[in-house]
Amino acid sequence: MSASGDKILYLLKTKGVQTSKALATMLDMTPMGARQHLLQLQKEKLVNPYSLAEKRGRPTQYWQLTSLALKRFPDRHEQLTLNLLNSIKMVFGQQGLDQLIAQREYQHSQSYNEQLNKHSELKQKVSALVSLRCDEGYMAEMQTVNDHEFLLIENHCPICAAATECQELCRSELQLFQRCFDKDADVKRAEHLLEGARRCVYRIKAKGSL
Q1: DSSP string of the chain?
Q2: How do residues 130-171 score in pLDDT, each as one tens digit?
Q3: How does pLDDT run across 98-130, given as a tens digit for each residue?
Q4: Were 197 and a residue from 26, 47, 159, 191 both cysteine, which residue would form a disulfide, CB within 3.0 to 4.6 Å?
């Protein structure tokens, strides 16, 4: 696959469905060039087009990743993790699994807070968390809503298979962020991959702000 093809897959993963024109703009190439790359990716069963009716004029064609393309963004040690979770539940029961998840959450919060506490402003703390999550493979980014509210966007979930099997992990992720920002902000999940969204999004809003 060409480097441009890889970039298109990355953009469709991080930005969601796009038109060939939008991809061309982001990649600084002609719309025809972008379309040629998309057609090649379609032959490789990595992208699919679909049309969306607009209020006026002809339907607009968008491009999206296929399930085969999503497999190119690996789930870390997927089968091993699933086997371990099932074994822990069989040997120690649900309570043992809950204790393991709680300990994981605590260890992560300690590690994250070491970095977040280096900053005083909420925006800086969210930015630091984004860097940490990127290092862990979540393809994270931050969007600013206003001076007191930010979105933590995770375009990929490297523990998706485990979280699907054990949804306590997803609840723990939210609780982890709430623990990290306990004194500074309220954290709510706005979009959830396991509920059909393309990504997970967390809304982080400074305490006391309107």
Answers
A1: --HHHHHHHHHHHHH-SB-HHHHHHHHTS-HHHHHHHHHHHHHTTSEEEEEE--SSSSPEEEEEE-HHHHTTSPPTTHHHHHHHHHHHHHHHHHHHHHHHHHHHHHHHHHHHHHHHTT--SHHHHHHHHHHHHHHTT--EEEEEEETTEEEEEES--TTHHHHHH-THHHHHHHHHHHHHTTTTEEEEEEE-GGGT-SSEEEEEEETT--
A2: 999 988 888 889 999 999 999 999 988 888 878 888 889 999
A3: 999 999 999 999 999 999 999 999 999 999 999
A4: 191
200 close to 191: Cβ distance less than 8 angstroms: yes
At residue 144, φ and ψ (nearest 5 deg) are -90, 120
Residue appearing with tokens 């706005």: 190
Q: Round to whole Å and give the CA distance between 28 and 16.
A: 18
**Global pTM?**
0.72
